[in-house]
């Protein structure tokens, strides 16, 4: 079952990148299409691919495009784009550098009570990514993560309420100990 999740992620990723996944009913055309996408096709089992495509289409995450040359193409629907973003958020991970540059990445936010669910979801995600909760609305991480934090901020649509800083902190002994830094 997990394999379908990975495959679904690959298919959603291809469709999200703007590529129209095309499948032909004609074996000769299908062979040509498969050659064009050789790298991808080697990693995907055909039966699983067709199963995933049908499931995505039945759930409304993908729409079919019929071309004049009897080739069926698939594109993400608006729901599919939302699903892809959720998939990316769920699988988001922060990288750890071998050397620490002695700067702390600090996420500060002031999200109103009206958006309490979003605020709590942001807290959970930051903790899940490995941030240390310094205060209820201040989280700290030692390695570069600006792109990932921006993705999370944009996903929750809270750009006006969240700040990302890179700065030294002194004293930082407890933080260094928490992250096993020297």
TrEMBL record:
One of its GO terms (biological process) is DNA-templated transcription. It comes from the Bacteria. The keyword Membrane applies. InterPro entries: PaaX-like_central (IPR048846). Residues 98-167 form the Transcriptional repressor PaaX-like central Cas2-like domain. Coiled coil: none annotated. Pfam families: PaaX_M. Keywords: Membrane, Transmembrane, Transmembrane helix. SUPFAM superfamilies: TTP0101/SSO1404-like. The chain crosses the membrane at residues 6-24. PANTHER family: PHENYLACETIC ACID REGULATOR-RELATED TRANSCRIPTIONAL REPRESSOR, TRANSCRIPTIONAL REPRESSOR PAAX. This is Transcriptional repressor PaaX-like central Cas2-like domain-containing protein. It comes from Candidatus Tagabacteria bacterium CG03_land_8_20_14_0_80_41_22.
